[in-house]
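Field reference: sequence -> structure
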Amino acid sequence: MDIQNGVKLLLEADKIEAINFPTETHREFIVFISQQCKKSAITALLKGSMAKGNAQEYSDIDIILTGENISNCLDLIIGSFDKILLSEHFAATSTYMVVYANGLAVEYDVRKTVTEEDIKKSLALNISDYQISGIPRDRLFVNSCFCPKRSREYSLLMIAQMCCAKLLCQKAALARDIYYDRVKLLGNDMTLLGNLDKATIHEEPKRQFLNRIRQLIFAYDAGSPEISEYLRDLFYKAAEIENSMIGRLAAATEANISDVVLHVLKNSICVDLH
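Structure field:
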């Protein structure tokens, strides 16, 4: 689909009916971003699973934003949809990751230019000014007050969130890719990867990989009880996908059990998940 046909399709279908939405929250965001980018004269290209039509309940939204006004409008766009729960500018990839309080995760990919391949693989939500070049991922740094560069520990929590979301979408191999690649980009930590290569991470038993994610969530201070509760709940739901016994433990956690039982629950994740 070329970019003009993408615009025509969305306009003819009232901008939303052409997309397969896994949840109403996904729908609300697409309506929001389409309208906001139109007001701000920003080109918005939807990519990833949402553009392909196979997004699931826990799928994030991947979106390219480009145009002369993007530097002035990025924070307005990021901050206007819902309360922000987690956010960061991940310097290694120069993308802006936001998890909203309603549970939706959005990766804002801000570009100076886009390629013809970007256009072919995307669905246009709004078209304003944009430039085509042959530079892949020609990203633009924008100083965002909503997505600052975070500490290493905070970035590890974001990695845990992304891994859990992929597991919930039953994309276990991609979860392991994200874990390995992002931890490496942060600077190898002997306590997390040691001398392991990606192939070894992929060969690990489910129990061992889940414990890697658990280590990130429970070892680092999330900064607020709300964030901690969200990440732990997401982890138990992801573990449920991997193993039914962990799913029964997750149900107990969601019942607001005591801190003592929660302590036992956290440590029970170490059981064999084969």
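Note: The chain has two domains: 3-126, 152-268.
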